[in-house]
Amino acid sequence: MSIPQRPPTLIVGNIALSFHRAAAAVVRRLLEEAGHEVRSVEAPHEELFRLQAIGEIDVLVSAWLPASHGGYLSQYQSQVQVLDPHYEPYCVWTVPPYVPVDEVAEVSDLARPNVADRMTRTLDGINPGAGISRFSAQMITEYGLDSAGYAFRPGTEQSFIDRVERGIAEREWFVIPIWRPQFLNSVHGLRALVEPKGLLGGIDQASPVVTNAAMEKIAPAALARMRSLSLGNDGVETIDKLINVDGLTPLDAADRYLWDEQRASS
User: Fold this and answer.
1) CB neighbours of residue 101 within 10 Å
2) Which of 83, 120, 155, 233 has its CB 3.0 to 4.6 Å from that of 181, i.e. a possible disulfide?
3) pTM listed for this prediction
C-alpha cells in the first residue's frame, strides 16, 4: 500500500510589521491545515519583494496594489500570480481625537500659524520603503508644510508606536502618518485629515502573491481557502490588537480570530 505523500514545505513571507504578521499568520494556518509545513520569513518592504523575485519566498502576504507596492512587484510580475485581496488598506494622516476638528480638519490646516505654533512639526513614521513614508515625505513639500517647519522622519515600527502612545498620553498635538489596518486606529480613535490632493495612494488591494512554481505545489483545498479569505480591515486590526495589546503571538492571535469567526458563522 502506498503511503500518501505529504504536501511540500512552503515559505510564507511578510513585511516586518505587526499587521502584516497578522494576515500572514492566518494564511499560514490555512496552509498548515492542508498538511503543508510552513516556514516564515520577514523583511523590510523592498527586501521582501526582492526575496520573492529570486525564488526564496513562495507566498508573499500581502502586496498592497497598485499604489504602495506596485513598483516593487512590477520587477517580476510575470513570475507570480496575484490572488484576490484579503482586505483593502489605505494610508491617512491622522490626529488624536482631542485635536478640535474646527481647527484641524484637513492637511492644509496644519500650515495655519495658530495650528503650526501648537503642533509638533516632526511627523514620525516607519521605514522609508513603506508607501505611507514615501507619500508623507512628498506631502510635506506638496502642501508647503516644509515652509511652516514640518518634516517627516522615518523610523522603526516600535519607535513609531512608542511615539504615538507617548504623545497621546501627554495630550500633545501631533500628526500621525498611519494606515488602515493598524491597531492604533481603534485603540485611540484617531481622526483622519481630509487630503484633497490625493497624494496618499487611495485604496489599495492587499493580495497574496504566489510564485508560479508554488501555485503547482499548494494543496487545492488550501488554495481555495486562500482565494476566498476575506479578513477586511477590521479583521486585520482585530488580530493586530490581539498581538500588540493582548500580547498573543501572531499564530495564537490568528487561531483566536479563526475560532471566533467559526463560532459566529455556526
Assistant:
1) 12
2) 233
3) 0.90
3-state helix, strand, coil in the chain (%, to 5): 45, 20, 35
Mean pLDDT, 10 residues at a time, the chain of 266 residues: 71 96 97 96 96 98 95 96 97 97 98 97 93 94 96 94 96 96 94 96 96 96 95 96 96 94 79
Contact between residue 126 and residue 157 where contact means Cβ atoms under 8 Å apart: yes
Cis, peptide link before residue 89, omega less than 30° from 0: no
Domains in the chain (CATH in brackets) are 10-88+204-265 (3.40.190.10), 90-192 (3.40.190.100)
CA distance 196 to 119: 21
Tell me the CB-side half-sphere exposure of residue 117, using CA atoms within 13 A.
Answer: 4
**132 close to 91: Cβ distance less than 8 angstroms:** yes
